Amino acid sequence: QVQLVESGGGLVQAGGSLRLSCAASERTFGTYTVGWFRQAPGKEREFVASIRWGGRITYYADYADSVKGRFTISRDNAKNTVDLQLNNLEPEDTAVYYCAAGLVARIRVVGEYAYWGQGTQVTVSS
């Protein structure tokens, strides 16, 4: 059972930056795909970014079109963490951000991920 804990959310003005972090309880975390999703009030949870293991020391990142070029996902397997750097934030980025992990075939599908964190709130003011 992998436990995930997110941190780093907060209130920021449009154009600002935040760094979210997802800490995992298991060392095997390194072979899991880790995704970040977000859910705004009244909306469905949506894919933001993911990073998946490609074998040995290779990892592949993927991003939703709405965040490509503004958000960057990275992982530190020595620390069992996956970070999401959020730059040039927009009010539309306001949501609860969730970290998820699992052995995933379809990286953008919520139901593919077995483990979820509790979420961290990101609020962007205009």
Q: What's the quick description here?
A:
By secondary structure, the protein is mainly beta.
Number of strands: 11
Helix content: under 10%
Q: What's the overall average pLDDT, rounded?
A: 94
Radius of gyration: 14 Å
Task: List the helices and strands in order.
Answer: EEEEEEEEEEE
Q: Pick out the low-confidence regions.
A: none
Classify the beta-strand content into a percent band: over 45%
Shape: globular
**So how many helices?**
0
Main β-sheet, in a few words? 7 strands, mixed
Structural class: mainly beta
Distance between the termini: 40 Å
Q: What does the secondary structure layout of this molecule look like, with pairings?
A:
Elements: E1 4-7, E2 10-13, E3 18-24, E4 33-39, E5 46-53, E6 59-63, E7 71-76, E8 81-86, E9 95-102, E10 115-116, E11 120-125
Parallel strand pairs: 2-11
Antiparallel strand pairs: 1-3, 3-8, 4-5, 4-9, 5-6, 7-8, 9-10, 9-11
Can you put this structure into words, describing what you see?
There is one protein chain. By secondary structure, the chain is mainly beta. It is 0% helix and 50% strand. The chain has no helices and eleven strands. Strands 2, 4, 5, 6, 9, 10 and 11 form a seven-stranded mixed beta sheet that branches. Strands 1-3-8-7 form a four-stranded antiparallel beta sheet, with no helix packed on it.
Question: Key terms for this structure?
Answer:
four-stranded antiparallel β-sheet, mainly beta, 11 strands, 126 residues, seven-stranded mixed β-sheet, single chain, globular
